[in-house]
Specification:
It is built from two helices and seven strands, in the order βββββαββα. A four-stranded antiparallel beta sheet has the order 4-3-6-7, with no helix packed on it. It has a three-stranded antiparallel beta sheet with strand order 1-2-5, with no helix packed on it.
């Protein structure tokens, strides 16, 4: 039996995301571990636009001490998307989704699904002539 509590930062502290300009994603998770240690805490995150997977990430936290509070920060590149795909994502709110799976010692302990609504950067209009 595992006890794991994961907190993501509140939405108000996250920077606004833009499908047209992001080149990396920064994510921070704070989690508490119960009375037993956890080996190989793993997070797999996959992003989809409609039915197409656009990225997949796999991270492992090798050991979590019992009765501890931990912060796990990851920074990773977001793949380059064609201008057509970016425009479709902007014009199709909530059709870009992510599935995040958390495993402890190879057992699924949590699944989180998120939907995204992207907006065009105000600076992008200046670049188009």
């Amino acid at each position: 039996f595992f006890f794991l509590m994961i907190r993501r930062p509140p939405r108000s502290t996250q920077s606004r995301s833009s499908a047209a300009s992001d080149v990396y994603k920064r994510q921070s998770l704070t989690f508490c571990v119960g009375s037993k240690p956890i080996k190989n805490l793993r997070m797999i995150e996959r992003h989809y636009f409609r039915d197409t997977m656009i990225s997949s990430y796999d991270f492992t936290f090798p050991f979590c001490m019992p009765n501890s509070t931990n912060t796990w920060e990851s920074i990773y590149n977001i793949p380059e998307l064609s201008p057509e795909t970016r425009e479709q994502m902007i014009q199709s709110p909530w059709e870009t989704i992510s599935d995040t799976f958390f495993f402890a010692e190879d057992k699924l302990i949590m699944h989180n699904k998120a939907l995204f609504n992207y907006a065009e950067d105000a600076g992008d209009e200046d670049d188009q002539e």
